[in-house]
Design brief:
Elements lengths: L2 H26 L1 H8 L9 H26 L2 H26 L5 H29 L1
């Protein structure tokens, strides 16, 4: 595969991730996070930090889920590896907060672990399909 292939795969997978997570954060879970974490939330999103997270996380999705799925020619492998990556990544954040932040809600931890698993599996599957389509 060429450098151009990987750039297109990255950008299109990034768009998919932003779209899916944007619906979650902006519509589905907006009130949930405000209700349970409002005391910790900044009034305005720090966009450079958020953007850096998305840019780096999609690299992880490609390296650890999409590309292995493409090499194995298996959508299931991409989705499964993505689910595992999402669980581990979101657990790192949420379980660390549960261990160190006073009054961190267990409910938020459970919801985030499920969301991170589902989100990353879905984006990995979409990335796999994009990779096949590009290839």
């Amino acid at each position: 595969m060429t450098f151009g292939y990987y750039v297109k795969l990255y950008l299109l997978t990034l768009v998919a991730f932003l779209a899916i997570d944007g619906v979650w954060l902006g519509v589905v879970a907006r009130n949930l996070y405000s209700k349970y974490l409002g005391y910790l939330m900044t009034p305005k999103t720090v966009w450079p930090a958020a953007l850096l997270f998305y840019l780096l996380y999609v690299v992880g999705v490609l390296v650890f889920a999409v590309l292995p799925g493409l090499q194995a020619e298996s959508l299931g492998r991409a989705a499964l590896l993505g689910a595992l990556l999402g669980l581990i990544a979101y657990a790192t954040y949420d379980l660390t907060n549960l261990a160190t932040v006073k009054a961190w809600p267990v409910l938020i931890t459970v919801i985030d672990l499920i969301w991170g698993t589902v989100l990353t599996a879905a984006v990995s599957a979409v990335g796999f399909l994009i990779g096949r389509w590009l290839g």
